[in-house]
């Protein structure tokens, strides 16, 4: 064993240690969350729960407020994703294919919604919504969620459209295909991985959004993150751990389902100003 460690060299040993610290930093809290969610009794200094239990799963899953918040959150996230696709994909295609003055500045402006503390922006939007009657409405919540997703749904698809070589589109046009047919059969399929990645991040961002929903939707619209706060405050940490896993599962499932599309190349190309 000693000769194998010495053969690796200092650099690989340091890289391995850094990797272990990195994995522990990210997976440690998740592992602790899973153990806590299934524990009936877990007291210090025990490394594992002394009693395993599903008591708090039953408690959380039978609360009507929790069930309604789950269906509401998934419904809003689906609406926001579909609306963002309809609004942002044509804009992303225009940024990628049409030259117009200040196009880079317009594209850069979508970063502003994520570049500053959001609460100030939400307060300004809430004042505007109050004047036009959008407070405590589903439309108001959808609009404030879309504000958060504009950057994902514009930058990443725009980079995906730019990566499609125009020579391929011109070849299809030379063969007699119309603009819509070229877009549908050539451009869109090749840009689809980038659009899919942006859609996943939009769905997850909407599912996790809390501040804007609290500002615009309370008291009638309580999504999962808002109910999560009340559960953490009013019940033991085990109930909070159960609800956290329920909130985390969609993220894990979606990322696993789309793992062939979600990679560093797609993400890095989406955040480059070309």
Describe this structure in words.
The model has no long low-confidence stretch (mean pLDDT 83). A two-stranded antiparallel sheet has the order 1-2. It is 78% helix and 2% strand. It has 274 residues and is an all-alpha fold. Helix 7 (138-162) crosses helix 9 (179-208). The protein folds into two domains: 1-52, no CATH class; 56-269, MetI-like fold (Orthogonal Bundle). The protein is built from 13 helices and two strands. The longest helix has 36 residues, at 2-37. The chain has helices at residues 2-37, 55-61, 64-97, 103-109, 112-115, 118-132, 138-162, 166-174, 179-208, 211-217, 224-234, 237-257, 264-270, and strands at 39-41, 51-52. It starts with a helix and ends with a helix. One of its GO terms (biological process) is transmembrane transport.
SSE layout and pairings?
Blueprint: H1 2-37, E1 39-41, E2 51-52, H2 55-61, H3 64-97, H4 103-109, H5 112-115, H6 118-132, H7 138-162, H8 166-174, H9 179-208, H10 211-217, H11 224-234, H12 237-257, H13 264-270
Antiparallel strand pairs: 1-2
Helix pairs in contact: 1-12, 2-12, 3-7, 3-9, 6-10, 7-9, 7-10, 7-13, 8-9, 9-12, 11-12
């Amino acid at each position: 064993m000693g000769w194998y460690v010495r053969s690796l060299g200092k650099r690989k040993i340091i890289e391995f240690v850094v990797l272990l610290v990195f994995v522990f930093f990210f997976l440690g809290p998740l592992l602790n969350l899973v153990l806590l969610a299934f524990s009936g009794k877990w007291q210090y200094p025990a490394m594992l729960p002394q009693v395993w239990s599903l008591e708090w799963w039953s408690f959380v899953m039978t609360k009507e407020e929790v069930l309604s918040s789950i269906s509401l959150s998934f419904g809003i996230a689906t609406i926001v994703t579909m609306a963002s696709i309809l609004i942002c994909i044509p804009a992303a295609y225009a940024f990628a294919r049409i030259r117009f003055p200040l196009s880079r500045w317009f594209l850069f402006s979508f970063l502003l919604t994520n570049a500053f503390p959001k609460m100030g922006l939400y307060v300004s939007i809430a004042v505007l919504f109050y004047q036009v009657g959008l407070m405590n409405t589903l439309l108001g919540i959808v609009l404030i969620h879309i504000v958060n997703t504009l950057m994902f749904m514009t930058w990443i698809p725009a980079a995906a459209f730019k990566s499609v070589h125009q020579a391929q589109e011109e070849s299809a046009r030379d063969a007699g295909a119309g603009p819509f047919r070229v877009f549908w059969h050539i451009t869109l399929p090749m840009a689809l991985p980038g659009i899919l990645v942006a859609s996943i991040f939009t769905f997850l961002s909407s599912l996790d959004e809390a501040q804007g929903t609290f500002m615009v939707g309370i008291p009638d619209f309580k999504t999962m993150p808002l109910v999560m706060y009340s559960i953490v405050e009013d019940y033991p940490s085990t109930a909070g751990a159960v609800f956290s896993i329920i909130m985390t599962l969609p993220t894990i499932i979606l990322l696993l389902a789309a793992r062939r599309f979600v990679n560093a190349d797609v993400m890095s190309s989406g955040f480059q100003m070309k």
